[in-house]
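Exercise 7.
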Amino acid sequence: MQNTNKSNVLLVELIIAVLFFSLIAVTVTQTFVGSHHKSLLNSRSQRALIVAQDYVSVLAGADDPAVALMTEGFTARGDAFVMDGVQEEFRVEVQMRPEESSTAGKLVSASVQVYQSEPVGGQAEAPEQPLAELPVARYVPSKEAAQ
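Solution. The predicted structure, written as tokens, is:
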């Protein structure tokens, strides 16, 4: 009788230990999955920032931003230029701002925004937030001021 009680207690202790380690395994797995998801989001944001920097450098060196963007493959939509399918995952929008002119020259400025091309994981449509947004400005001196 005493042997049966000892084996029952041992069995209960083993079941409790297995349940405890199972609970810890689930918790650790959730932590690793969450960190992997955050890593993927960070990686996508970094790639979006690099794409935005590429087009900022194109605009900063262009004499005519509209021509430079059309050469890169953008299409004009109102006061913006849009290109879908950048690196097969991004949509880039360039919002041109009105030129500020003075007797000394003009200031051409724009905003480069990078969005996700498609919703991730079939999520419902939410107000779209850019993954990366960078301003760009270029001062072009007038010919009279340059002389």
